[in-house]
């Protein structure tokens, strides 16, 4: 019967047929050990010369790395295997014999691996990262669907920008100017006025000339928006959501976390509620830690975020940033006109900001004033302003960057490993 590697546990003692690729192999005289992968997982196939036909053993000896084959064998329990099972091979049918596969078991440089990203994805480490990414996506839909949110798909081509146009990719839209989306937020605000609680999950683009381990040119964001929700209520949703995806990965990706050598004890601490610290108190904390170069009104960079996060073993919210640091649409603090009702969620272990969110301005005149102060073209934002004319309500939302979140939960250092085909400052291939 046919099986996948992920489902061999259902067939202990039975003979199964698996379509697979040869990830690696070794042999010692009369036994060949085939490391097989089929996309669902990895398993070792053991070929014993005295127990198979001669042509089967010769096939096992001659098959090359990343050749495709059908393997028939009996599933056995094996406590030494990370999977817990291995295959006693009875038959091998080679589909295509690969030659000169470029990624060998030896060490390769990052640029070489990135040039061969289409093949690097096959490795056990990259497989584990992609499986964790998939689990985060699955549990994201689970969380928001269970919480009564409606999935909405904002446009990727837009005529306006939520946060200014300095980091946007410009394109020509027939006879109009257009940009690739840097956020679906403004459109989600419109959708929230129709559907109450909504979320989007899609690609966004930032034309940042950054080469840090936290930045990509194209990345994916989860952006919820909630009508009749204030800033504090939004923070509760954020911490419950992040707790949910971490616990889901812990529950469903133990093998992948082990493959990556992830310290799961640190992830087990990630349960809501999360600590909150104001921008003012964060600044004091930084000064105590020796960061005397940062002053009130300055944005926090990666070293600052890392230093703040070191004081906690959970993600921490930095709340109430100075108004001048944040986009035009954020609601002012009711008791201070120099800060806004916003928060950045900073992940532990030096992974930086994974969520940015705020309560939105819902007063028509104030929003119009902010648009003018930011020198934004009012005609491009007329529809957005109209949301404040027809039944405006307090509303809040946030955006989570998927790749940074995958990097943190999986414990990989650079976001380029957390998306199948990363777009970096100097990389558009493959």
From TrEMBL:
Family statement: Belongs to the class-II aminoacyl-tRNA synthetase family.
Gene Ontology CC entries for this record: cytoplasm
Signal peptide: none
Stored CDD domains: AsnRS_cyto_like_N, AsxRS_core
Localization annotation: Cytoplasm
Protein's name in the database: Asparagine--tRNA ligase
Domain Aminoacyl-transfer RNA synthetases class-II family profile, residue spans: 130-430
Domain of life the protein comes from: Bacteria
Major site of localization recorded for this protein: cytoplasm
GO biological process: asparaginyl-tRNA aminoacylation
Alphabetically ordered keywords of this record: Aminoacyl-tRNA synthetase, ATP-binding, Cytoplasm, Ligase, Nucleotide-binding, Protein biosynthesis
HAMAP family: Asn_tRNA_synth
